[in-house]
Amino acid sequence: MRVIKPEQLRDQEIESWRALRAKTGLPASPFMEPEFTLTVGRVRPAAWVAVLRQNGEDAGFFPYERGPLGHGRAIGFGVSDCQGAVLRSGLGISARDLLRACSLSAWEYDNLEAGQDLFTPSVAEGFDSPVIDIGEGYDAYEQRLRGASPKFLKTTLAKERKLGRQVGEVRFVFDERDPAVLRTLMEWKSAQYRRTGRRDRFAKDWINTLVQLLHETRTSGCSGTLSVLYAGDRPIAAHFGLRSATVLSCWFPAYDPEFSKYSPGLILHLRMAEAAAAEGIGMLDMGRGSAEYKNSLKTGQLRVHEGSSFRPGAGAALYWVSREPSRRAHGFVRNRPKLAGIAQQTLTRIGKLRGN
């Protein structure tokens, strides 16, 4: 086994990574492709990759970030929506052996994909990640929406027409390359985080830079995709995500609050689904967490997990003491709708105070 920095991956190892991932039969999440790890490695000095070998061949790849006392996290932890190792089927290794080889006392994840059997025993909690299935084309998806919630689709399409009449011709660009529009989206998203009392991810330089670098990334397995809804020449809603040949991972959606009465976010997601289907993409993964717009648009869900793998020792004990009580407290609130509602109201009030 080699434990190296992402930039030290050889071309052949990158190709082996892609080939192993394709053989898993799991959805082709761009977060699990080597390009995502390579890009994170450019902004996160703590990023590492374990390269596993079997019978003289590349047999697995485990990307991670290593902190003090061997406390590890999933690569891009905090923004990555699909996590785990890319391993050859039947590879005889345990999670404990892998952590030992990586000098890790613990490895934390918050979006471990289903099918990561190596880490299944350490799972603490599971979550649904809503998806939009467009494998049969956009018309089939729209027909499904009409059957499940005809009022929702009719109202959203009516608002789109009204937007065109009152503001300007509605235009959608699936893959906008203008970095100025990306900056606008990031400003909208930062403002949204502050309004809702949440941590502003774009206040972190490494996330800012990561998104800009991924916007420039163009490979079959992982490409940054900026989708924009315009009214006239003005962008009013946008989304930045990552796409593979068959999956679009929804990541950072936001809109201009001035146009909120038109539901521009919903219009944007419908147009994204339509354009993605035309590109041959079969699924939009909207990411972990419940939200009204996700419930309106989804056709199903994937399962992701949160938890930590430990290797017995003092480092693991210190990690448990520092992280587990907080995680359990969050889970306690999250799993009780009344408490979760109170928490959200409190966050919103905090956001309003910050804005004054």
TrEMBL record:
GO terms for molecular function: acyltransferase activity. Residues 155-294 form the BioF2-like acetyltransferase domain. It comes from the Bacteria. Pfam families: Acetyltransf_6. SUPFAM superfamilies: Acyl-CoA N-acyltransferases (Nat) (SSF55729). Its EC number is 2.3.1.-. Keywords: Acyltransferase, Transferase. This is GNAT family N-acetyltransferase. The lineage of its organism: Bacteria, Bacillati, Actinomycetota, Actinomycetes, Kitasatosporales.
